Amino acid sequence: MNYPWPEAGTPLDQVVTPMPVIDEDRLAANIAKAQAYFNQHGKAFRPHIKTHKIAAVARQQLAAGAVGINCQKVSEAEVFADAGFEDILITYNILGAAKLKRLRELHERVARLSVVADSEAVVQGLAATFDPAKPLAVLVECDTGGKRCGVQTPEAAAILAQKIAAAPGLRFAGILTYPAIGGAAAVETFIVRTMELLAAKGMDCPIRSNGGSPDLFSAHLVPSATEHRAGTYVYNDRSMVRSGHCTTDDLAMHILATVVSKPAPDRAILDAGSKALTSDLLGFSDYGMIEGFEGARIVSLSEEHATVDLKDCRIAFPDVGQMVKIVPNHTCVVSNLFDRMVFHRNGIVTRVEIVDARGTVW
Amino acid sequence: MNYPWPEAGTPLDQVVTPMPVIDEDRLAANIAKAQAYFNQHGKAFRPHIKTHKIAAVARQQLAAGAVGINCQKVSEAEVFADAGFEDILITYNILGAAKLKRLRELHERVARLSVVADSEAVVQGLAATFDPAKPLAVLVECDTGGKRCGVQTPEAAAILAQKIAAAPGLRFAGILTYPAIGGAAAVETFIVRTMELLAAKGMDCPIRSNGGSPDLFSAHLVPSATEHRAGTYVYNDRSMVRSGHCTTDDLAMHILATVVSKPAPDRAILDAGSKALTSDLLGFSDYGMIEGFEGARIVSLSEEHATVDLKDCRIAFPDVGQMVKIVPNHTCVVSNLFDRMVFHRNGIVTRVEIVDARGTVW
């Protein structure tokens, strides 16, 4: 990408737009606050790197005390293995000869690699790929109400755990869930029951991994969980403010955009479209929040334009050529659209990091 | 991106998923059919490269008879200038010192470069950048009902045209619109009235550029337009089928995905999430169409997962590990997520092209 990335020392009002920018102090505070919480409650914390996709930021998370990192795909894990990370959990069902081959290669060079499975088909593929000389750690993914992947009952979890334990090349490492928001009680019940069933078979369940940023500071409500995974907490976004996880003072990512047209009294057009903000609504009815201009609503996006409805905005909106700051609905997806990410402190650029794992979808 | 891109000759059932693929025959047919239509009606055709972002595909469009290309941002135009394209229209208000400097550099090396403006602020920036030795061609962007950018009335268009004509470094080249779907009559009225106003001032309006894929084959309903611009027609997508522009036999892009989980009888999970399909709904209530499985609805996306509701699907859905083909709601945004694009003929890979202008948002 031929972006004119700014030098360190550049004031943000001189950068080219659209440009996502990360506030260093808020980033550091978000990392420290979450880690302090997990330290206090005696739980391991494993950040999901999908939010930033940047090795340097993951190193900040490890330096603060995280036990390792969470990736979603083999390709993402490869990027972080290349960057020297030694404890990687891939929370995905890995299927097919090509991916299993790459997973095996990854296992050769990552000290502590683990994956998940929620079906016999996935366990069979893993079992056929790994051997007892260096078994792969596998967790059973459980659906505790999130309604995505995962076995549906503790009974099914226990049965799949036994299949993993019975495969010579695999090691049953525990259970994992990505719960519904507010689902602490359901997670606790599921974990406790699964552990009982496993104990009855003489099996241990060393790792009980829970996840999610919206409920991060409620992780202690799941006492049986040993570990928590979260991604979005590192930058935060509009959806995190809505969930009560943070305030607007904790928002580390903004997208800088320029007003390129004010064609009618009730309409402004910004140069940040779906290629900068993405179309993720996450339940909102508009595509981001323009800081300082209450009532100005981003009602539609095309690839390179945001259409702002000014009808309910009582504050004089910036003129053509002026800049605005947008809080994205969802940070993680913005990171995937840019080759580099610009960091700043008090509006002065501090560094520009390559988004190492951008585009790693396989 | 560490994607294991397939070699030519690879069958599509052996590629790694998620993977968007382009059908060569349908691509060629879409290009030929649109160009034949414009030839028949005596209008210039200027494809918008945003849909594919690939120089090799733009060359196919020029070889078929297109007069030049349409880009949306300076950075996109730079990529195509680097690839040797000599007639580029940038349909965007270009503002700010950094972008104007790059636009001037582009003008030095592109034989026929033109841009648009819809306000005095934009014209002033352009006027201060270019000089009479090599004036820049500028079209007035008009809002004929699309409600994005553009002057609101023919009177305002004529006034802005005069300002452009009065700037020594600029040349008034005509008018341009990106209309609402079905807006032919409004476009024709706007163009005719603007030409009358300009004629009364002794001004010519050589280019009258209309646009859009959904109404591409209705372009003859705007007889006063000299040129048409369209992007999506080249691949087509679910929204183009809905608009009546094409049938499912004209869909050149599919996204191949693998079933990674069937956790419950009414739910399947695919490995193509918003990082492969984007969250663009374009008015649909689900995130793409799974070919051959009517009633199977992609009801939600997270970054790496599509959740498929099977409740209303009467056909046995593929098992974990098997592949499905998804018709995306919107092709252009998918192109922006992948570093390369895989082309095939009858399911055998023919070539893998770099998506040259991926991520060019500034």
From TrEMBL, chains A, B:
Pfam families: Ala_racemase_N (PF01168), D-ser_dehydrat (PF14031)
Keywords: Lyase
Residue ranges of domain D-serine dehydratase-like in the record: 252-345
Hydrolase as UniProt keyword: no
UniProt record, GO biological process: D-serine catabolic process
InterPro entries according to UniProt: Ala_racemase_N, D-amino_acid_metab_enzyme, D-ser_dehydrat-like_dom, D-ser_dehydrat-like_sf, PLP-binding_barrel
GO terms, molecular function: D-serine ammonia-lyase activity
Family: Belongs to the DSD1 family.
PANTHER family noted in UniProt: D-SERINE DEHYDRATASE, ZGC:162816-RELATED
Designated name of the protein: D-serine deaminase-like pyridoxal phosphate-dependent protein
Organism: Phyllobacterium leguminum
Classification lineage: Bacteria, Pseudomonadati, Pseudomonadota, Alphaproteobacteria, Hyphomicrobiales
